[in-house]
Amino acid sequence: MSLGTLITVAPTGAEHAKADVPALPVTLEELVSTARSCEQVGAAMIHVHIRGADAKPSLDLGLLKATVEALRAETGLVVQLSTGGSVHDPEADRLRVLEAMPDSASCTMGTVNFGDDVFMNRWEFIVALHKGMQERGIVPEYEIFDIGQLASLQRLLDQHGLPAGGHVHVDFVMGVPGGMPGDARTLVAAVNALPDGATFSATGIGRTTLPVMFTALGAGGHLRVGMEDTISYSRGVPVRDNAQLVARAAGLAKIAQRPPLSPDEARKVLGVHI
Ligand code: KMH
Ligand code: ZN
């Protein structure tokens, strides 16, 4: 396990509306400016969902390519595109995300209830994503919403081999209504079920953000924070911006004697080519 802490920022997501959360970055300009300020305070990777001109979630390939290009030009961050999209996105559009050639992409390891919706991830689709990333040299981050999905990850690795980069990195997304709860005992159980040699980050949705963050640091894991997952800084206090969440995570990582990794250090951990 690496000594430092990889901090990923997930600044936008697909669930919050700009009208409800004005600080949410939705244009390319807002995203790049957010990425820069988050890098300055300790982020090493960015998990990107883009929005269209109407501020609604989009998987437009041209815009995805422009986003990867702009983030590479303006920041040193590891650029991870979401293949999860929104719960309404078709599989073909989600697979096409890989054509934008990010450094990394998410790969959710199973279907999960997602509030009142269903976040669909069929086995054949997971295999297609995994192979698509292997072929293109894109490093996956396996998103785990429930503990049983770790058994699916082991099955995937057994049947289809290691991912591009040769290293397995997992992100636990905890506290989604329908998924695993965001608490210490569940995170410890999930860490105990990781494939050998895997690294992990964790994020807790909403009010589970702090217990998950403290537990992840104590368990030697990495952190994901951002307005995709959390729009309240504390009870009744809206998040000012994504950098505020990254700065809090970086401060706690330093207190834990596991200071934030630079983007290049993160690339080494993840197996992303420099
Ligand atoms: N928006 C969620 C339905 C991912 O980015 O890969 C799925 C999600 C996971 O956010
Ligand atoms: Zn996401």
Proportion in β-strands: 15-25%
Give the termini separation: 20 Å
Order of strands, main sheet, comes to 1-2-5-6-9-10-11-12
Q: What is the total number of structural domains?
A: 1
CATH architecture: Alpha-Beta Barrel
InterPro entries: Aldolase_TIM, BKACE
Pfam family, one: BKACE
Protein name: 3-keto-5-aminohexanoate cleavage protein
GO molecular function, one term: 3-keto-5-aminohexanoate cleavage activity
Put the structure in a nutshell:
InterPro entries: Aldolase_TIM (IPR013785), BKACE (IPR008567). The protein is an alpha/beta fold.
Description of the structure:
This protein has helices at residues 28-40, 61-74, 91-96, 123-136, 148-160, 184-192, 209-218, 242-255, 263-270; strands at 7-9, 45-48, 50-51, 57-58, 78-81, 104-108, 112-114, 117-119, 139-144, 169-174, 199-204, 222-225, 232-234, 237-238. The protein is of the alpha/beta class and 274 residues long. The protein has a single domain (7-270), classed as Alpha-Beta Barrel (TIM Barrel). The strands form four sheets. An eight-stranded parallel beta barrel has the order 1-2-5-6-9-10-11-12, surrounded by eight helices. Strands 3-4 form a two-stranded antiparallel ribbon. The mean pLDDT is 98. Bound molecules: (5S)-5-amino-3-OXO-hexanoic acid and zinc ion (ZN). Residues 10, 13, 47, 49, 82, 84, 228 line the site of zinc ion. Zinc ion (ZN) binds at residues 10, 13, 47, 49, 82, 84, 228.
